[in-house]
Structure formats: C-alpha cells, structure tokens
Backbone:
C-alpha cells in the first residue's frame, strides 16, 4: 500500500470522527473552554480541518459542493445553538468564520492540485 493510499484510507474515518466531535462540542450545553484560543479561531480550526480531511477522504467529490455542504453544516449548528435548553449563542459571525476557513483550505488544495483525482 502506497503512502498516498494509506493516508486516503485514514482520511475518511478521521473526517467522520472529527465531524462527530465538532458537532458534539458545538451542541453540548457547557463545552470545555480554551481561553488561550478565541472562539472564531476554534471555529476556523474545526471547519478547516473538516475541509482538509474531506478533500482527501472524498477526492472525487467536487470541492465547491464540499464547501457548500460544510458551510451548510456550520449554519445548521448555529441555528441549533439557538435552542434555549442548550444555553448556547447563535452567532452569524461564527458561521462566517466557518465558511472562510472552508473556502481558504479548499482553495489552497485546489491551487496545489492536491489531492489529485484518481482516474
């Protein structure tokens, strides 16, 4: 197994694990606080990681559609955070931070032609 195929094989489970982790942390009432890292940076790190892993896990999936789906997930999380019993804040700026991170990562990967699509 080549190094590239090994990474691709690990990317899909890593993507799903990160997705479940990000959604869980976003929707629990009292998530752990990282005071040294700002809220927007946490959003950008989470969604940038999802975009990176998603590009490698699903190389045949068009990057614009991946950006759309991940951005929609970010918006959906913000809407869910408006549920009063979660004691969370719905903030459109969080969704904007998510979307910026997704677009930056997927654009860089596109410019680098990375990952290359299998034929």
Residues:
């Amino acid at each position: 197994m080549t190094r590239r195929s090994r990474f691709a094989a690990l990317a899909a489970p890593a993507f799903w694990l990160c997705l479940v982790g990000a959604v869980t942390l976003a929707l629990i009432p009292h998530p752990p606080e990282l005071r040294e890292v700002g809220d927007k940076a946490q959003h950008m790190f989470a969604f940038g990681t999802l975009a990176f892993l998603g590009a490698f896990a699903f190389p045949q999936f068009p990057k614009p559609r991946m950006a759309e789906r991940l951005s929609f997930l970010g918006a959906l999380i913000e809407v869910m955070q408006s549920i009063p019993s979660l004691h969370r804040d719905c903030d459109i700026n969080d969704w904007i931070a998510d979307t910026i991170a997704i677009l930056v990562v997927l654009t860089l990967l596109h410019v680098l032609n990375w990952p290359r699509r299998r034929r």
Summary: The chain has one domain: 3-111. The mean pLDDT is 92.
